[in-house]
């Protein structure tokens, strides 16, 4: 199947996400603001080594599945000597629907862009129960905030 890349088109693919405890600056707290802990999504997988009787292998695991969103800005070919380049922007849609990511201009060859459009480019991954994990992480954050008072 021939994959057609066109300027002005948005391509989406499945992508694994991890839940993590993070920090951000909240200017509404205190006189000058303060760092606040929260639970947020990060694109990617965690890799664990599983030992068998004779071998070891890496297994990819994630907490949820979202999307990678690639918007093509333009396509250029520097000369006959070089492959076509795709200029695009990238954003993420987390499993809970939040869209985030810098929209800076990126560039890949057309072949690499087509591979990226298909989604996660590494090994297959297992999905976990993210609602339960998010609740546990939020309880940990609430307990830490309670200790600081």
Question: How would you characterize this protein structure?
Answer:
The protein has 2 helices and 9 strands. The chain is α+β, with helices and mostly antiparallel strands. The chain has one domain. The strands form 2 sheets. Strands 1, 2, 5, 6, 7 and 8 form a 6-stranded antiparallel β-sheet that branches. The protein has a 3-stranded mixed β-sheet with strand order 3-4-9, with no helix packed on it. The longest helix has 18 residues.
Summarize the structure.
With 149 residues, the protein is α+β, with helices and mostly antiparallel strands. Helix content is 17%, strand content 48%.
Q: How are the secondary structure elements laid out?
A:
Elements: E1 10-26, E2 34-43, E3 46-51, E4 56-62, E5 64-76, E6 85-93, E7 99-100, E8 106-109, H1 110-117, E9 125-127, H2 130-147
Parallel strand pairs: 4-9
Antiparallel strand pairs: 1-2, 1-5, 3-4, 5-6, 6-7, 6-8
Structural class: alpha+beta
Number of strands: 9
* Count of domain modules: 1
H and E order: EEEEEEEEHEH
Distance between the termini: 61 Å
What ranges have pLDDT less than 50 throughout 5 or more consecutive residues? Answer: none
Major sheet description: 6 strands, antiparallel
Compute the CA-based radius of gyration: 20 Å
SS summary, helix count: 2
Task: Estimate percent helicity.
Answer: 10-25%
Strand-residue proportion: over 45%
Instruction: Give the overall pLDDT as a whole number.
Output: 81
Q: What is the overall shape?
A: flat
């Amino acid at each position: 199947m021939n994959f057609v890349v066109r300027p002005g088109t948005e391509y989406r693919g499945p992508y694994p996400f991890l839940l993590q405890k993070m920090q951000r600056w909240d200017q509404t707290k205190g006189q000058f603001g303060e760092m606040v802990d929260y639970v947020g999504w990060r694109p990617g997988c965690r890799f664990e080594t599983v030992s068998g009787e004779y071998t070891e292998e890496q297994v990819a695991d994630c907490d949820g599945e979202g999307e990678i969103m690639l918007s093509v800005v333009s396509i250029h070919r520097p000369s006959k000597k070089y492959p076509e380049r795709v200029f695009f922007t990238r954003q993420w849609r987390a499993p809970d629907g939040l869209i985030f990511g810098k929209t800076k201009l990126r560039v890949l060859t057309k072949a690499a862009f087509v591979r990226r459009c298909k989604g996660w480019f590494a090994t297959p991954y297992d999905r976990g129960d993210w609602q339960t994990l998010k609740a546990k992480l939020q309880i940990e954050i609430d307990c830490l905030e309670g200790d600081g008072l």
